[in-house]
Write a structure and sequence with these properties.
Length: 262
């Protein structure tokens, strides 16, 4: 048996700038020597952010990290990495102090820090389809935007984004052949069927389809069944993932996902 590769120590990343990309989305840009050797072409891959306590000094945070003491971790998506400037961008859904990651991002400023583990490889790495179906709520806009921006410029398809307010629409460099729709759901903590209703009602194009769909788990479960059972989209052409669940924090949601898979 080949010995397992030792886990890489988390990087301690330093904030260069943070701002509201839209009223309900914060972009944080990290920069500094800690990003030396960061792997390229990882946009769309996930990562673990290790969050300091409020007002915790960096030395105390690093000591906790090295000693194995409990640290709050949350899963996010690499939005952009510029190898020339050594800058890494991560987008956070902004909901004030309701949740440790949102609280950290809402107050982030230059020279703040956090721990970073990862990233994984991109969730959608190849584009071989006749058309594409992309759908995302705010939690999944980064992975969906990366997929759209990586597509061939002659790609055809449909993208559906569900956001909290009209002002949360973003500029995404999607191919001209992608028909982009923005749906408004003011309270993301109440169930919504808008994305599924849209997908079920739209004209289903002919040919091979590839998907990039992520968001709230109940929505994803229903869409996964629709794609598999009714449209018979092969599993290898389907990226679809529940990123969160109404009423659960991430640790509870990840446990629930593991139990569903067993």
């Amino acid at each position: 048996m080949r010995p397992s590769k030792p886990a890489q120590s988390p990087r301690i990343l330093t904030v260069k700038a943070a701002w509201h990309l839209t009223p309900n989305m914060i972009r944080v840009v990290f920069a500094g020597p800690e990003l030396n050797g960061f792997p390229e072409v990882r946009e769309g891959g996930n990562c673990k952010l290790l969050l300091p306590n409020v007002d915790e000094p960096k030395d105390a945070f690093i000591e906790r990290l090295q000693s194995g003491k409990p640290i709050v971790k949350r899963t996010y998506t690499v939005r952009k990495f510029d190898a020339a400037t050594q800058e890494l961008s991560i987008d956070f859904v902004a909901h004030g102090d309701d949740g440790p990651a949102s609280r950290w991002a809402s107050h982030a400023k230059a020279r703040d820090f956090l721990g970073f583990a990862g990233p994984s490889t991109p969730k959608v790495a190849s584009f071989n389809a006749d058309w594409y179906l992309v759908a995302a709520d705010p939690s999944a806009i980064p992975v969906a935007a990366v997929a759209l921006e990586a597509m061939p410029r002659d790609a055809q398809g449909v993208a559906i984004f569900e956001v909290t307010a009209k002002e949360d629409q973003q500029e995404i460099d999607a191919p001209e052949g992608i028909d982009v729709h923005w749906l408004i759901h003011p309270d993301p903590h109440t169930p919504s069927t808008q994305q599924e209703d849209f997908i079920r009602a739209m004209d289903w194009q002919t040919g091979r389809v590839q998907t990039c769909i992520a968001g709230e788990s109940a929505v994803i479960r229903s869409l996964r069944a629709f794609l598999s059972n009714e449209k018979q989209v092969p599993r290898e052409d389907t990226y679809i993932s529940g990123y969160w669940k109404i009423g659960l924090i991430e640790d509870q949601h990840q446990k629930a996902k593991r139990e569903e898979e067993t």
